[in-house]
Write a structure and sequence with these properties.
By secondary structure, the chain is an alpha/beta fold. Helix content is about 25%, strand content about 25%. It is globular.
Length: about 400
């Protein structure tokens, strides 16, 4: 394992997609960086993600960050140089209430204004793209054809390897335990491997980010929420009509989603009965619950047995939107957390934004509205509606 440096410009805490992307973009810009991860790279929420990447959001900032991340992911084999198994068959939200149709019609207009290809589909058009979709009760669908999915672990490893090539030190099994502040200025970070001098900390610790924030007196309202998914057994000949480029499909009213995972299907849903906690035990009733949803919206999926599955954390913010910024309570403490399930897909763009914030440059999008300050008295919440 790498040795702890004596001093660096920036210490990044958290070895998921946010931390790895930040480390890569900073190191590429010539900044000396130490990335510390208390377990293994991508071992937190990133490796448990469904891998979806999209610009289909209701918030202009999320649309912009999703679109920018898609561009960066498309170029990933060249920069930083890693195969991530990117597929772009599109994202499709199946809509079953007039209110949801109105919401996505408004989102579609925002997508188009931002230069993102997007259109509304009839139920019949939706079923053409995804023959598994049961359209009884479906009024319309939202479709963004350039969205898709890729392999989360590969993205993190690609960024971490790229960061190392540019001189960053990446240390796993290394926990940040304290941040020393003198006269309002960060002067060092204590880790389980020793102390390193630095004047800047970037908090990319996901569901664990409140612990890091507390080290400098910043209260971050992020809570962990268990989410579960499964991968089916291989598709049988009965599924030969399902195209290889079947879009990632979400039944918006129930959050049931599924996409091709090689010759199988990846499925999941957001269980509204789950409460905030650190409990990652698998739900013994998960198969029964997802089966009930599939029976209505995708009954053919019930023909496939479950081969594997896992549970992971969403790092949930009160308005299900990112918490990003630089805290003015000390100099300099930056943070990017609370992505509430859409963090993996925005990681590439977030790394660029954090780099520019550190360098004092203007990022490609104004993230001021995502500041942690919005949760204090008088702040304006910024709810994201197109969530899974």
């Amino acid at each position: 394992m790498a040795n702890l440096p004596e001093e660096v410009d920036v210490v990044v805490v958290g070895g998921g997609v946010m931390g790895a992307s930040a480390a890569f973009h900073l190191a590429e810009a010539g900044v000396s960086v130490l990335l510390v991860e208390k377990n293994d790279l991508a071992s937190g929420s990133t490796s448990k993600a469904a891998g979806g990447v999209r610009a289909n959001f209701s918030d202009e900032l999320n649309i912009a960050m999703g679109a920018r991340s898609l561009d960066l992911l498309a170029d990933f084999p060249n920069r930083p140089g890693q195969e991530i198994d990117l597929h772009r068959p599109g994202y499709m939200f199946a809509l079953s209430t007039p209110e949801d149709v109105a919401l996505f019609e408004k989102s579609t207009a925002l997508h188009i204004a931002a230069g993102v290809e997007s259109r509304m589909l009839t139920p019949e058009e939706a079923k053409e793209l995804n023959p598994i979709l049961e359209i009884d009760g479906i009024l319309a669908a939202s479709f963004t054809p350039n969205d898709g999915y890729c392999t989360p672990e590969s993205v993190v490893l690609g960024y971490a390897s790229g960061a190392r090539k540019h001189g960053a030190v990446v240390m796993t099994q290394t926990e940040a335990t304290d941040i020393e502040v003198v006269d309002g200025q960060i002067v060092s970070v204590t880790t389980s491997a020793g102390k390193v001098k630095t004047k800047t900390v970037i908090n990319c610790a996901g569901a664990w980010s409140p612990t890091i924030g507390a080290m400098v007196g910043l209260e971050i309202p992020v809570q962990p929420l268990r989410r579960e998914l499964l991968i089916t057994e291989p598709l049988t000949a009965d599924f030969d009509d399902v195209p290889a480029n079947m879009p990632m499909t979400i039944d918006y009213s129930t959050s049931l989603y599924w996409h091709r995972e090689g010759n199988a299907m990846l499925m999941g849903f957001s269980d509204k009965t789950v409460e905030y906690s650190w409990d990652l035990r698998r739900d013994p009733n998960f198969l029964e619950k997802i089966g009930e949803l599939a029976d209505v919206r995708a009954p053919r999926l019930l023909e496939l047995g479950a081969a594997s599955g896992w549970a992971g954390y969403y790092d949930v913010a009160p308005d299900h939107n990112a918490i990003m910024g630089e805290w003015e309570g000390v100099s300099r403490f930056l943070y990017a957390t609370g992505f509430s399930g859409h963090g993996f897909l925005q990681g590439p763009a977030i790394g660029e934004i954090l780099r520019d914030m550190y360098l004092g440059k203007t990022p490609f999008v104004d993230i001021t509205p995502l500041s942690n300050d919005r949760f204090s008295s008088g702040g304006e919440l910024r709810p994201e509606k197109n969530i899974v």
